[in-house]
Amino acid sequence: MRGEIGHVAVVGAGLVGCEVVEAFRSLWGAEVTLIEAAASPLPELLDPELGRVVARHLESKGVRVLLGAPVGGIRAVDDGVVVTAGGVEVAADAVVVAIGVTPQVELATAAGAALGPSRAIQVDERLATTAPHVWAAGDCVECRHAATGGPAFLPLGSLANRQGRVLGGVLAGRDERFGAVAAATAVKVFDLNVAAVGCTAARLGADGLGVRSAWLSGEDRAHYWPEAKLGLFSLVFDPATRRVLGVQGVGEEAEVAKRIDVAAQLLLRHGTIDELAAVEHAYAPPYAPALDPLAVLAMAAANQLEGVEAVSPLSDLAAATVLDLRVDEERAERPLAAGRLLEIEYRELRRRVDELPPGPLLVCCAHGTRSAEVVRFLRGRGAEARYLGGGVSWRVRALGPEG
């Protein structure tokens, strides 16, 4: 099929859409335009801070990405199709529409089974529908979401297989139950590994919950280990109860998904940021840093509740006074633009602290950890300061060198 299709338009940057993009681009050599109505790819999985990282990665692979572009129409022309999206016309040889899954519920409704709010089949923990002697499992049923406590439609093969086993036990007379789910999901976008569990801050905020986020960039092994790769992680939590409600990760190694697996077990048990900070892991430099990234992420969340505030890696710095703590080599590798930029290396700050303006200051470093320490120090001196969550490393991966 390589060479037979020159340009493909893919509508929908969800799990299937991103996988289809890679197939057309890498396997078949086609030009690809990815069209998404939301502001970033994988909007059900990732908040914009990580979604923008995925978008830049897609673009680095030669994919044209149109975001914030709802489709207004698709029409056939003599030599292909034209997709109108966000006021732009995209001419292509073919179009793939991947905008979600609709549960097949006709048989169940004909049997008298009720549907839930998501329009999937409503079942209890024994997978019984509201119709007598009728059970249902798989991609047609609702689950109970551990983060929200409410119903959710999650058509994932992992959940469907577990439901099949539970239902087999139920029909055999056993007391089997299918409980709440954390919605752990992973997807490979070219050579970028993406995984998430729970809910995004955007989703929970839209539901009226006052959640907060923390961001961390850090190596998946000891930083000095030759194979160490950078991972980006975000945490969504409830500041009132300290409950972990979502964790998202992006990185070059599959270890990202394994850390999300760990977070899923905590979320299923209504765990808190304090419990996540105490997570125990097997440590040796080839396998992990001395402090696991999940634990450091939880510590960053706890710091925020103590007044060591972070701002989004995507924050506009045009009007900010930014204190850059990085060394010269780091600045040369990843330049930073800001309204007013003060460059004082971390190790020199205490000696030169009297050079700082009264504030407010936005402190930044490579990954965010040194910045958090400095914010605590400055606040102890009465200064107004916050730091750039995830550090400049995250910002460059999301916005590019010009960010």
Overall structural class, as computed from helix and strand content, comes to: alpha/beta
What is the CATH class of the largest domain? Alpha Beta
Q: Looking across the biggest beta sheet, what order are the strands in?
A: 10-11-14-13-12
Q: CATH superfamily of the largest domain, called what?
A: FAD/NAD(P)-binding domain
- Weakly predicted, low-confidence segments: none
Helix content: 25-40%
Q: Say what the CATH topology of the largest domain is.
A: FAD/NAD(P)-binding domain
Shape: globular
End-to-end gap: 39 Å
Rounded average pLDDT: 95
* Domain module count: 4
Q: How much strand content do the residues show? A: 15-25%
Secondary-structure arrangement, i.e. CATH architecture of the largest domain: 3-Layer(bba) Sandwich
For the sheet with most strands, the description reads: 5 strands, antiparallel
SS summary, helix count = 12
Oligomer: single chain
Whole-number radius of gyration? 23 Å
Q: Could you write a compact summary of the structure shown?
A:
This protein is α/β, with parallel strands linked by helices.
Structural commentary:
- With about 400 residues, the protein is of the alpha/beta class.
- It folds into 4 domains: about 5-95, FAD/NAD(P)-binding domain, CATH 3.50.50.60; about 105-170, 3-Layer(bba) Sandwich (FAD/NAD(P)-binding domain), CATH 3.50.50; about 185-305, FAD/NAD(P)-binding domain (3-Layer(bba) Sandwich), CATH 3.50.50; about 310-400, 3-Layer(aba) Sandwich (Oxidized Rhodanese, domain 1), CATH 3.40.250.
- Helix content is about 30%, strand content about 25%.
- The chain contains 12 helices and 19 strands.
- The protein has helices at about 15-25, 50-60, 105-110, 155-170, 200-205, 255-270, 275, 295-305, 330-335, 350, 370-380, 390-400, and strands spanning about 5-10, 30-35, 65, 70-75, 80-85, 90, 95, 145, 150, 185-190, 190-200, 210-220, 230-235, 245-250, 310, 320-325, 340-345, 360-365, 385-390.
- The protein has a 5-stranded antiparallel sheet, with helices on both faces. Strands 15-19-18-16-17 form a 5-stranded parallel sheet, with helices on one face.
- α11 (about 370-380) links the parallel β18 (about 360-365) and β19 (about 385-390).
- α2 (about 50-60) packs across α12 (about 390-400).
- The two termini are about 40 Å apart.
